[in-house]
Amino acid sequence: MTTTATATKQFMSTEQLLEHWQGHRNLTRRVIEAFPEKELFEFSVGGMRPFAKLALELIGIGGPALKGIVDGTTEAYNEEAFNPKTKEEILKKWDEETGVINHYFGQISEERFQETFNLFGEYEFPVYQNILYFVDNEIHHRGQGYTYLRALGIEPPFFWERF
Question: What is the CATH number of the domain that holds 130?
Fold first, then answer.
């Protein structure tokens, strides 16, 4: 019996993954900006959370999760850690967390992306799957934001304009 080794090519570099994620973050930031301030904190459809609460969830996941991955800590998710009163505060914190994400993402080696990590002490998956979850969760919540904006008669940013 003969065996054949197959060379595989890398689909995407870690830098490209970060760029992809930050593209989504850029678009979500523009969705936050599109909301009138009152509606950002109060408007919802069908009993879903207002978009400010969804943005706070995203703020509470990305940077803190990557810090945990790098440090090897599994602190519980804390959505109440930041309690803004204005859209400006949310956008400022969003921008700060972008820096945190860039800082910690750059400290994850190629090998670590395959390691299992217990995110927030709740979800045990390989690091790369955790990061893909962050992106998927953001897209999901941004879709809710698009629904809210359309219900308010506001044209949301084009979904393909992420940069």
Answer: 1.20.120.450
Q: Is residue 102 part of a domain?
A: yes
Whether this prediction's pTM lies above 0.90 is answered by no
Q: Is residue 128 classed exposed, middle or buried when 0-12, 13-18 and 19+ CB atoms within 10 A define those classes?
A: middle
Distances (CA, A) of 15 to 82, 110, 150: 29, 11, 34
| Number of structural domains the chain divides into | 1
Is residue 1 a part of any domain in this protein? no
Question: Looking up tokens 């993954």, which residue turns up?
Answer: 17
Range of the domain at 22: 14-151
Residue 24 among known ligand-binding residues: no
pLDDT by residue, tens only, the chain of 163 residues: 555 555 557 788 899 999 999 999 999 999 999 999 999 999 999 999 999 999 999 999 999 999 999 998 877 777 777 889 999 999 999 999 999 999 999 999 988 999 999 887 777 899 999 999 999 999 999 999 999 999 999 999 988 887 7
